[in-house]
Design goal:
single chain; about 80 residues; alpha/beta; about 20% strand; globular
């Protein structure tokens, strides 16, 4: 069983984190991005589809999380994209 109160206490002590989520524009990755932002973390979503990134940023803005969520368009399946 997960102790949500304990998790909240730990978050209050450690403060906000900076989090990078690859595949953060869709599905489970998107849920992680928005969930971490709701908890107060700064989140950078990395994905290969700029249109999905735009939709993620719009959803974050609509939820009042716009200043906590960023997007980087990159296809991490290619070596060139991992070195820039």
């Amino acid at each position: 069983m997960v102790d949500r109160q304990r998790d909240n206490d730990v978050d209050a002590v450690r403060g906000a984190r900076s989090v990078v989520v690859t595949g953060g524009t869709d599905g489970m990755g998107r849920a992680v991005v928005l969930g971490r932002a709701e908890r107060g973390d700064r989140v950078l979503a990395v994905g290969s589809n700029p249109a999905k990134g735009d939709r993620l940023l719009a959803a974050a803005e609509e939820a009042g999380l716009g200043e906590r969520v960023g997007f980087l368009a990159a296809d991490l399946s290619t070596i060139a994209e991992t070195t820039r």
